[in-house]
């Protein structure tokens, strides 16, 4: 008798364990609608770049990480995911559309992970690192429509270093955040 | 006491009934031209560790321990496999773009280094999937060397 009850209890535990995980992801994907509209309206003033919405969501994400704000980083990550999905590539020539697909397939995944990892800013930053390379390639292919800076932080990830893209010349480090906000140098200017 | 007995009996019947709901097995015997080992040079010892600790959820070749034939353990395992393959599938690694292959390789290293993979909730029961420190170092070194050698290529 005892055994039966015990085995039931364990099996219920199993079920509970996997249910919890799915619930968590659902909960985090619920609150994305507010931030998206905010992204759409910013940075519209200068000459249009086709990747305007993607860029502004990325920069929002970068600024959230620089402030050590995992929640804002997550909502920007979700906005970025939406911006990638909503991108209209119908006007692009074939090779550019292909390049966009290649970059977007990777970048969307990073944005998604950043969006799903409230409470784990270290992991958000890991994905931000690869994402920054994707956005860099995107800017090189499509233009930014605004002045951008490629910054380098030599200390991140046990001195392996990492890059990011910023809209301002002043360093505001998204990898080390408020512990070392001004660590880093401008490596390249994009126009 | 009577009530406890009735409830226990009901539970027992449910447990017995769900044994008939077996999820489809994740096993694909086909030759694998898109396999991870076709994309990178993977030494035998690295391949062995990946197989033991990763492939159950991250490939089309799950090796099922006996207890996964018991429900709801099998369902739990099934959900792990589905989520795992969506994130990374070693059997179909060759179908990812070069860019994504490099991204995935980076993430493999990071998740092993941070000990988020193999999932602690999974290794709790699947003890054989646990990584020793030596095994971790072996994988991490291999990931590092592979990433370095590939990023140097034009």
List keywords for this structure.
heterodimer, A: 191 residues, mainly alpha, Four Helix Bundle (Hemerythrin (Met), subunit A), 3-stranded antiparallel sheet, 7 helices, 3 strands, globular, B: 154 residues, 0% strand
Give an account of the 3D structure.
The complex is a heterodimer of chains A (191) and B (154). Chain A is mainly alpha-helical and 191 residues long. Chain A has helices at residues 2-29, 33-41, 52-66, 70-86, 94-115, 121-142, 156-159, and strands at 148-153, 162-166, 185-190. Chain A has one domain (39-190): Up-down Bundle (Four Helix Bundle (Hemerythrin (Met), subunit A)). Chain A starts with a helix and ends with a strand. Mean pLDDT of chain A is 79; it is low at 12-46. Chain B has one domain (25-152). Chain B is elongated and about 70 Å long. Chain A binds chain B through residues 1, 4-5, 7-8, 11, 14-15, 17-18, 22, 102-103, 105-106, 109-110, 122-123, 126, 130, 134, and chain B through 8, 11-12, 15, 71-73, 75-76, 79-80, 97, 99-100, 103, 106-107, 110, 114, 116, 121.
């Amino acid at each position: 008798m005892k055994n039966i009850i015990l085995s039931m209890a364990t099996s219920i535990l199993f079920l509970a364990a996997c249910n919890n995980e799915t619930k968590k992801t659902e909960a985090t994907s619920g609150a994305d609608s507010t931030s998206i509209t905010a992204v759409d309206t910013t940075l519209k003033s200068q000459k249009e770049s086709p990747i305007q919405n993607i860029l502004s969501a990325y920069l929002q994400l970068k600024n959230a990480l620089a402030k050590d704000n995992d929640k804002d980083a997550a909502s920007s990550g979700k906005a970025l995911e939406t911006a990638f999905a909503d991108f209209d590539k119908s006007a692009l020539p074939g090779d550019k559309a292909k390049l966009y697909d290649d970059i977007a397939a990777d970048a969307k995944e990073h944005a998604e992970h950043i969006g799903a990892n409230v409470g784990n800013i270290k992991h958000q930053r890991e994905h931000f690192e690869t994402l920054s390379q994707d956005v860099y390639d995107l800017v090189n292919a499509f233009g930014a429509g605004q002045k951008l800076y490629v910054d380098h932080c030599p200390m991140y990830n046990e001195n392996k270093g990492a890059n990011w893209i910023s809209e301002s010349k002043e360093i505001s480090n998204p990898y080390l955040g408020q512990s070392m906000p001004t660590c880093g140098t401008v490596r390249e200017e994009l126009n | 006491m009577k009530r406890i007995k009735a409830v226990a009996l009901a539970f027992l019947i449910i447990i017995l009934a769900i044994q008939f709901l077996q999820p489809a097995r994740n096993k694909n015997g086909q030759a694998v031209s898109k396999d991870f080992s076709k994309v990178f040079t993977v030494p035998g010892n690295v391949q062995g560790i990946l197989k033991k600790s990763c492939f159950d959820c991250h490939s089309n070749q799950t090796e099922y321990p006996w207890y996964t034939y018991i429900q709801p353990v099998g369902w739990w395992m099934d959900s792990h496999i589905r989520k795992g393959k969506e994130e990374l599938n070693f059997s179909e690694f060759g179908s990812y773009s070069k860019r994504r292959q490099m991204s995935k390789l980076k993430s493999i290293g990071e998740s092993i280094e941070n000990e988020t993979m193999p999932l602690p909730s999974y290794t709790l029961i699947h003890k054989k999937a646990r990584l020793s420190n030596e095994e971790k170092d072996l994988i991490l070194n291999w990931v590092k060397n592979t990433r370095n050698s590939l990023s140097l290529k034009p």
